[in-house]
Amino acid sequence: METISYLLQGFAVALTPENLMFAAIGAMLGTLIGALPGLGPANGVAILIPLAFSLGLSPASSLILLTAVYAGAMYGGRISSILLNIPGDEPAMMTTLDGYPMAMKGKAAEALAISAIASFIGSLLATIGLIILAPILARFALQFGPAEYFALFSLAFATLGGITGKNPVKTIVAAALGLMIATVGVDITTGNQRYTYNILELYEGVDFIIAIVGLFAISELLFFIEKHIGEGAGRATLNKLNLKMKDIIEILPTSLRGSLLGFVSGVLPGAGASLGSFISYTLEKRIVGEKGNFGEGDPRGVAAPEAGNNAAANGALVPMLTLGVPGSGTTAVLLAMLISLNIQPGPMLFQQNAELVWGVIAALLVGNIMLLLLNIPMVGVFVKLLSIPPKYLMPVVTLVAAVGIYSISNSALDLYFMVGFGLLGYLLRKLDVPLVPVILGMLLGPEMERNLRHALSISDGDWRILFSSGLSIGIWIVAFLGLALPYIIGPVLRRRMERARARLEVEEEGD
Amino acid sequence: MIGDRILGILLLLLAVVYGWEASQFPEPFGGAEEVGPETFPLMLSVILGLSSIYMIVKPDPDQDWPGVKTLLDLGFVLVVLFIFAALLAPLGFVISTTFMVAVLCWRLGARPLQSGLTGLGCAVVVYVLFNFVLELHLPAGILSLS
């Protein structure tokens, strides 16, 4: 009951004309970002943060804008998977399996419409799940002491590589680098200078927004330069939409199952959207069995992964909002937004900033309806964007990123840092070191250290306090499994995902 | 193989220097305690040190590294970005942006004329949008009217 009254309050925030406008702009921009080649959701949100920041938007408006971008990017990502067989990001990979064959049969418009509806159902159900689950989890998390929090942050790093991750040692290296960057600056507790070398600009530490934009946007530019990808993916054509009510009803059960699985894997640490769409697809294939023609353009094969992927994206907001522990790159970027607005995420968020949190949740619901309305009639516009060649797009994206960073403090030094981080990001990506743990380290570093010192000063320097309660031991066990499991199950899962895709390609060549 | 080993050695050096510096932190005002500003950095230095040793001992197979020509290209682009940052305030937004965007378009394979036009076009559009619509002031530089 309490939840419903909070939610109504949230709608009061989200439905003000100003915030409705921001949700609409965000949904539009997000779909654009998702549809354009070379701009992932994390990258897109990262570029927009400094802009929202220097425009002086209120915290609620900034968050509504960026969560709408986040939701929109998930919608936009499927367009190139279906039309061109090029998945925009990893979770969209499963959508190509049946989406592209549908497009080859001249049913591209239907595939896009079905995926939009399935995405809508997935996001809607997951937002409802978020509304129910988040307050419960937040209340539970109030029992956490500093030792539990320290364990929880370690868990976040351990599971970040995901079950399908490659080399856990590289995840640890990346996390350590991020945490080390976070220690630069004046120590909050004692006032000691650490690693500042008497450079005034370093006293406040390294700004993580500059690091995020550099690591994502600039390193992406360098990859495009390296591979000489200048030409666009070619023109995609779209047929006239012919979707009957029957088609929609047919995919409903599939979408419901996909949403449920996706939500669960979004909430769980380490699973994430890729696993969500993969499980939804394979399970659906097993349930439908011989009656379906999966892999040859079955609409259910489009609906299942899309519902799963969008539900997972929204589910991932649960740990981010309630525990302050993001499970994916994009939610990490949203966390960066919260921290730079001086809002401390975690269980207290639901009490101290109730209006803001529920405003954002209500905006997710509103944004989803907007996205559905926007996507079915306007998909033609977004399809045209696919043919923008990267040789013009990437320089403009770089410019927008640079302008955003420059507008924070009008300092050229920030731009040098951005380019430096871009080079670092490029080198790390070349060596298969993931970038998200670096960013998460920079974000969580100060809190993690504060909790460690707090715990140790309670116990008078006895490190055993970190393993003293049942809860913290439980969290440590999960964290350990998060690092160990990729070694055991990871190769199997990865091989299966690749095999599913390889099979499709073989069939295509056989045609 | 070699890539991971080089990274591992560099990281090991970083871990040692970082840890050594942490151990040299001056004693905080009010006397040393069980946990101080150096505790967390020392912990990180040990973690990074151990993982980098693992990387040296058990490196992953290398990705394909680009040839010398592409590396020069990448270096060139980085230099262009640094020049852009340095010239932004003195020369002004429009000139430095036209330069930066045009060079990047050209390096990605666009024809010189089209690159130049793209550069000039988006420099002017972004400048007008920021200064007059969003009211965020970008440096006018030598094109300043006043």
TrEMBL record, chain A:
Keywords: Membrane, Transmembrane, Transmembrane helix
Pfam family, one: TctA
Record-annotated DUF112 domain positions: 20-440
Transmembrane segments: 45-71, 111-137, 149-165, 172-188, 208-225, 323-344, 356-380, 392-408, 465-489
Protein name: Putative tricarboxylic transport membrane protein
Source species of the chain: Marinobacterium lutimaris
Automatic annotation (TrEMBL), chain B:
Protein source organism: Marinobacterium lutimaris
Keyword Manganese among record annotations: no
Organismal lineage: Bacteria, Pseudomonadati, Pseudomonadota, Gammaproteobacteria, Oceanospirillales
Keywords linked to the UniProt accession: Membrane, Transmembrane, Transmembrane helix
Record-annotated membrane-spanning stretches: 40-57, 78-104, 116-134
One Pfam family matching this protein: TctB
Protein name listed in UniProt: Putative tricarboxylic transport membrane protein
Record keyword NAD present: no
Domain DUF1468: 6-139
Alphabetized InterPro entries for the sequence: DUF1468
